[in-house]
Write a structure and sequence with these properties.
Elements: E1 2-4, H1 6-22, E2 37-39, E3 51-55, E4 61-68, E5 74-82, E6 87-90, E7 97-103, E8 106-113, E9 116-123, E10 129-131, E11 136-137, E12 140-146, E13 153-158, E14 162-167, H2 172-175, E15 177-179, E16 186-192, E17 198-205, E18 208-215, E19 222-223, E20 231-236, E21 242-248, E22 251-257
Antiparallel strand pairs: 1-2, 3-4, 4-5, 5-6, 7-8, 8-9, 9-10, 9-11, 12-13, 13-14, 14-15, 16-17, 17-18, 18-19, 20-21, 21-22
C-alpha cells in the first residue's frame, strides 16, 4: 500500500526554490504531475506472489497465488492478508481459483478446469465453494465485480467474442442479462458502482480503449474518457469517482476521474 508523502513533496519544493534562487537563469524542471509516495505496507514472500488483489474490508486483503499441489503442478488458490499485522491465511487448497471479488462473507471467483471456466461462490470463512455457472470447453468467464450491497454482479464472458453479463449473485443463471455494447465495442475489464446503479467498462472502439458507463438495469452507454490511449482496470469509488490505469507515452499511470467530470 502507498500514500502521498506530503513531507517529501514539501522538501522537493523547498529544494527547487533554493535552486532557482541560487541561479535565477536556471529553469524549473518539467512538472510530471506525480507526487512522491511512501510505502505503508509491503508483503514479501520469496516464492509466492499475489495476484488479483482486492479489499475484503478495511483491514484485510484477498488475493490469489500460484502454489504447487502434491504432484508438483502449480495452480492458483485464495489467500487473505492483514497488512497491519502481516498475518496471512490460506483460504482454499487445490481449488484452482482466481480473480476473486469479495463482498460480505463470500466472494465470487473464477474456476478453470478442463479447458473451460465458470464462476463459483467462495465462503470467506472456510473456503468452501458453490458453482454458480456451468464450466464448458470454449467458454471463458472472468473479471467478476459486485456492488457494495452484494446485490449485483457483472463479469466478462467469451464464447467466441467478449460480452458483458450482469446478474444477481443469489440467482446467476435465472437473472443473467447481457448488455448490448456500442458498435464495435470490445470490453477489456469492468467494475460495478458501489450503489449498483451502473457498470463502468474499459471498452475498445475505433482503435481506442476508453471508459464507458451504462446505467442498470436499462439505459444508454456514455463515454467517460476520450483519446487517453488505453485504459484498464476501472475501480469505481463510493464518492462517484473512478480510478483506472492508463497507458500513456510515459508508461502506465494511475488516473482519477472525478465524479463531476463530463
Amino acid at each position: 500500500g502507498v500514500a502521498v508523502d506530503a513531507e517529501a513533496q514539501e522538501e522537493r519544493e523547498e529544494e527547487l526554490a533554493k535552486m532557482l534562487k541560487k541561479d535565477p537563469l536556471d529553469v524549473r524542471p518539467v512538472d510530471t504531475g506525480l507526487q512522491p509516495h511512501e510505502e505503508l505496507w509491503v508483503r514479501t514472500h520469496g516464492g509466492r506472489s499475489a495476484k488479483d488483489v482486492r479489499w475484503i474490508d478495511d483491514d484485510t486483503l484477498l488475493f490469489s497465488s500460484w502454489v504447487p499441489d502434491g504432484r508438483g503442478n502449480y495452480q492458483p488458490d485464495l489467500f487473505t492478508w492483514a497488512p497491519e499485522s502481516g498475518k496471512e491465511r490460506r483460504l482454499t487448497r487445490q481449488a484452482n481459483l482466481r480473480e476473486a471479488e469479495p463482498c460480505g462473507d463470500f466472494a465470487i471467483a473464477v474456476h478453470r478446469i478442463h479447458g473451460g471456466s465458470g464462476l463459483v461462490r467462495v465462503s470467506l470463512e472456510d473456503g468452501s465453494t458453490t458453482p454458480l455457472t456451468d464450466p464448458a470447453p470454449g467458454i471463458v468467464e472472468g473479471n467478476p465485480r459486485m456492488d457494495s450491497a452484494c446485490q449485483t454482479v457483472a463479469w466478462l464472458r467469451n464464447d467466441g467474442e467478449w460480452r458483458v453479463i450482469v446478474a444477481s449473485p443469489d440467482d446467476l443463471k435465472g437473472t443473467e442479462q447481457e448488455l448490448t455494447l456500442p458498435p464495435g465495442g470490445q470490453p477489456l475489464s469492468l467494475d460495478v458502482r458501489p450503489d449498483g446503479k451502473s457498470v463502468v467498462v474499459a471498452l475498445g472502439t475505433e482503435g481506442w480503449f476508453d471508459l464507458w458507463e451504462r446505467p442498470l438495469p436499462e439505459g444508454d452507454w456514455v463515454r467517460r474518457t476520450a483519446g487517453v490511449g488505453g485504459v484498464f482496470d476501472p475501480d469505481a469509488s463510493t464518492d462517484g469517482s473512478v480510478f483506472y490505469l492508463a497507458q500513456t507515452a510515459q508508461g502506465f499511470d494511475l488516473h482519477h476521474l472525478p465524479a463531476d467530470a463530463p
